[in-house]
From TrEMBL:
PROSITE patterns: ADH_SHORT (PS00061). CDD domains: 17beta-HSD-like_SDR_c. SUPFAM superfamilies: NAD(P)-binding Rossmann-fold domains. This is NADP-dependent 3-hydroxy acid dehydrogenase YdfG. It comes from Chryseobacterium oranimense. The keyword Oxidoreductase applies. Belongs to the short-chain dehydrogenases/reductases (SDR) family. Keywords: Oxidoreductase. InterPro entries: NAD(P)-bd_dom_sf, Sc_DH/Rdtase_CS, SDR_fam, SDR_oxidoreductase. It comes from the Bacteria. GO terms for molecular function: oxidoreductase activity.
């Protein structure tokens, strides 16, 4: 029997590319999205089953999982990919905007995972792959809300993996650094349109905009392919490895974060984000 993966947020970006990649490898794919009318980025394949799932709607989560199991017979892997970035100055973001960021990036992934775990427990196997970010390990300026949601996702996944090991279930994290190369960057702008402009921050915004412009230019040209391949590796390598960081653009900062002293790391990132 072919293995089956359920992927959230497959209308575009990493989600659509991952769905197509798994299908090309012979997997059954339950491709979920908020609006199934936006499935134009998915290949027309008999082993891709498109169904509606909004991570902020528990009923739609339960329904999508049930429909996927009914269609293919089982689920072996869940990829919690649905998410977006609230990008802007913290002080300018409303409490409602921050709540929505966590509802999608954290509580949505938790609700999908909670809903599929009884199925995984019954078959004594399963893999949960949570799409984090380099910003799940590093706090980025103008992305403090997004970073904090991904920090939460990583902390939860790391703790969860211990609980599930005895049941034959594995939890893993993907840390892309190349999100700027997908339509995700456009959503970051769209989601931030309602943020209040506070003029005191304008000099900082101008300076950090130049920094991010340079970082975007240095992003891996093949970031999407690298991330998709890392997701597939996490699903198929048979290990309990926790983190996969597939793109080169984020690796120097991750290396500094995880392998240098706090003083060295702060000096390194200050030089990137606070240099004049």
């Amino acid at each position: 029997m072919n293995k089956t993966v359920l992927i959230t947020g497959t209308s575009s970006g990493f989600g659509a590319a991952t769905a197509n990649y798994f299908a090309a490898k012979g997997w059954n794919v339950i491709a979920t999205m908020r609006d199934t009318g936006k499935d134009g980025n998915l290949d027309k394949s008999e082993n891709i089953f498109v169904t509606q799932l909004d991570v902020q709607d528990k009923n739609s989560i339960d329904k999508a999982i049930a429909e996927g199991i009914n269609h293919f017979g089982n689920i072996d892997v869940v990829v919690n990919n649905a998410g977006y970035g609230l990008f802007g100055i913290f002080e300018s973001a409303s409490r409602e905007a921050i709540q929505t960021q966590f509802d999608v990036n954290v509580f949505g992934a938790m609700d999908v995972t909670r809903a599929v775990l009884p199925h995984f427990r019954s078959q004594k196997s399963g893999t949960i792959i949570n799409i984090s970010s380099g910003a799940g390990a590093i706090g980025f300026p103008m992305a403090s809300i997004y970073s904090s949601s991904k920090f939460a996702l990583e902390g939860w996944t790391e703790g969860l993996r211990y609980e599930l090991t005895s049941l034959g279930i594995v939890a893993k994290i993907i840390e892309p650094g190349g999100a700027l190369q997908t339509s995700f960057i456009n959503r970051m702008g769209d989601e931030g349109l309602g943020l209040q402009l506070i003029e005191d921050y304008l000099p900082f915004l101008e300076q950090i905009g130049k920094v991010y412009g340079g970082m975007q230019g240095a992003a891996d040209a093949d970031a999407v392919e690298k991330v998709v391949q890392a997701i597939y590796e996490a699903a198929t390598d048979g290990t309990d490895r926790l983190r996969y960081s597939p793109t080169n653009d984020i690796k120097p900062i991750l290396e500094a974060r995880r392998n240098t002293s706090e003083e060295e790391y702060q000096a390194f990132t200050n030089n990137i984000f606070l240099s004049k």
